[in-house]
Amino acid sequence: MAVSADAAVVELLDSSNYLDWSVLVKTYLLAQDLWDVVEEEEEEEADDEFKAWRKKNAMALHKIQISCGREAFSLIRNTTSAKSAWDTLAEKFKPKPFLTRYDNDYNQYKPLFDAVRSGDWNKAKDFLTLHPNAIRARLPSRGMIALHLATELEHEHIVEELVQLM
User: Fold this and answer.
1) How would you classify residue 33: left for phi > 0, otherwise alpha for psi between -120 and 50, otherwise beta?
2) Which of 112, 100, 54, 98 is nearest to 80 (CA)?
């Protein structure tokens, strides 16, 4: 899909360029005094103030729409609010914070580490029954597995049980 001659960007939004695209579109909308409609929804009223807002909203929404590739546009095709369109595109295309494998393991297996810390083998065993791969999960800050943590905390009964499971 080609970039429209009156688009606010040189490259249409797709799954790989959200950060650059959003900066360019926001700068354009700020320069055209349209950004305020992206920041806040307006209450619908029948007065001149609402009519002015509606016009600015339509102009901002149009610029956002013509700056999108097919996939991005399909997400906002039926949207009537510039703010809603902007928020939808950000939710879909804005890169998520990077999590390492260890961070994911820790978040997923936190109940195991909590059980080991507290010395509660029954909770740890119940968790390991449901998640057997958790035995290899590591604490992100220190790279320790549950066995190392149990050893460090001198929970001998947990150490013995974990060694048997391994």
Assistant:
1) left
2) 54
Residue count of the chain, please give it: 166
pTM: 0.54
Alpha carbon distance 65, 69 (integer Å): 9
Q: What is the DSSP letter of 4?
A: P
Going from the N-terminus, what domains does the chain have, and what CATH number goes with each? 18-93 (no CATH), 101-165 (1.25.40)
**Confidence band (pLDDT; 50, 70, 90) for 99?**
very low
Region at 63 (left for phi over 0; alpha for psi -120 to 50; beta for the rest): alpha
In degrees, to the nearest 5, what angle opens at C-alpha 10 toward C-alphas 60 and 14? 80
Please, which residues have CB within 8 angstroms of residue 28's CB and are 6 or more apart in sequence?
8, 9, 63
119: left (phi over 0), alpha (psi -120 to 50) or beta: left
Integer Rg of the chain from CA: 26
For residues 48 and 54, what is the distance between their CA atoms, to the nearest angstrom?
Answer: 10
The token pair that represents 30 in the structure block? 């700020």
| Residue closest to 58 by CA, chosen among 81, 25, 28 | 81
For residue 42, the model assigns a pLDDT of 66
